[in-house]
Amino acid sequence: MALKINKLEIENVKRIKAVKVEPKADGLTIIGGKNNQGKTSVLDSIAWALGGERYKPSQATREGSVIPPNLHLVMSNGLIVERKGKNSTLKVTDPKGQKAGQQLLNEFVEQLALDLPRFMESSGSEKAKTLLKIIGVGDQLTVLDQEEKELYNERLYVGRTADQKEKFAKEQPYYPEAPKGLISPSDLIKQQQEILARNGENQKKRDQAVNLHAERNRLAEKVNFLEEELERYKKQLTQVDYDMTVAYKTVEELQDESTAELEESIANIEEINRKVRANLDKDKAEEDARNYKDEYAALTKKIEDVRSKKTDLLNAADLPLPELSVKEGELVYKGQKWDNMSGSDQLKVSTAIVRKLNPECGFVLIDKLEQMDLDTLQEFGQWLEAEGLQAIATRVSTGDECSIIIEDGYSVGSGEEKKEEPSKQKEWKAGAF
To answer: Which of 22, 31, 179, 222 is the most buried (most CB within 10 A)?
Structure first.
């Protein structure tokens, strides 16, 4: 069972003259009183008694007292803790007869339970590290956090590059009429020369047909004048007629190719190539933009997977409170980061984490609860009772919510009790020690 404080008696520590308190086993015990009456001295005394020399006040003995401090605490496991004498020597009495001393106390007492403000005032990342440490997922979450950070930075770069590529593509001119590839001047000239060569062959054939026609005429004249050679020339004429007919048929089928388009392309090659290059740049930019967008989407999926793993890891962990988690390296409770939590929720989170740090420690000390209104105090107290936790707290108040009132270094009853004559109270309290 978790260790709690059943009873405490304090004398001559800081502002305290004589105080006796029997805290509630579960829930909130409020030590009330006006300013500078000794409320905080009660908490400092408990911390000193249980936490050791590191918590000893710099001026432990009450000013003006010749009697040294005297602290006497009875714990729920029967352990008796005392500090008394000139040197305020620690004495721990274990009813089971086991080892005693500060080492034994350290096994039961969580340091942050004695100094809750140290946790509450730490940075958001330090609070988160404390939580992750006690639930045993700190190393795993660190790896996932680093993976998420690297993926996020990579995705950020890819997203920016995709936007730049897309903007660049939109700004580029585009010429639908331009060819897909760059034009080579030498290729165009070569094509032109081939066409001219073919046209030259055609011209030779035309010239041949004309020559044959002239030959036919010459031979016809010879037929007229040289009838004796008629038969011979008739045979030649017949053959020439045939050759001529074939030649003219071939000529009719010929068609010269125009070089005008190539000549225009050669003349405008720089302008055409400028348009081709512009189209290629635009196509490349659009392709790059698409690729970077696809990469961005893939990285987004990876980030979501990592965040899902982190969520699953925390959901599977034994957290001190429902709805308590770690996001982006900070504590989050009910969806709120520390600075947006209510005072009551901050105390719940802090107390729950302290309890988780050392389940053997069932109490916590809280100073300055005057920041809470009565409804919030009641809500916090009910939560403590439900959790089986003991909290000893101070509050600048003498109202009914106070379990005990400190006045001029003495405990004078609760806020609900009618106060006795101060002189009688002091006399009674002084005689109790």
So the answer is: 31
Residues 345, 355: Cα–Cα separation, whole Å: 15
Question: Tens digits of per-residue pLDDT, 227-246?
Answer: 676 677 778 788 888 788 87
Residue 371 is given by DSSP the state G
User: Crossing angle of helices 269-316/138-171, nearest 10°?
Assistant: 160
Do strands 27-33 and 404-407 pair parallel, antiparallel, or not at all (unpaired)? parallel
Alpha helix positions (H), 226-342: 230-253, 260-267, 269-316
The Cα 127–Cα 138 span in angstroms is 12
Q: Are strands 89-93 and 80-84 parallel, antiparallel or unpaired?
A: antiparallel
CA distance 14 to 96: 33
- Is the pLDDT confidence value at 360 over 60? yes
Give the side-chain half-sphere CA count within 13 A for 140: 15
Q: Is 153 exposed, middle or buried (0-12, 13-18, 19+ CB in 10 A)?
A: exposed
Which pLDDT score, from 0 to 100, does residue 31 have?
95
In whole numbers, what is the pLDDT of the chain averaged over residues?
85
User: Contact at 8 Å (CB) between 368 and 376?
Assistant: no
**In 3-state terms, the chain is what percent helix, strand and coil (to 5)?**
55, 15, 25
Helices (H), 323-397: 343-357, 374-387
Question: Residue 422 pLDDT > 60, yes or no?
Answer: no
Q: What is the pLDDT of residues 371-419, one digit of tens each?
A: 788 988 898 999 999 989 999 999 999 999 999 999 999 988 776 663 4
Look up the CATH architecture of domain 5-109+358-432.
3-Layer(aba) Sandwich (3.40)
Where in the chain are the domains? 5-109+358-432
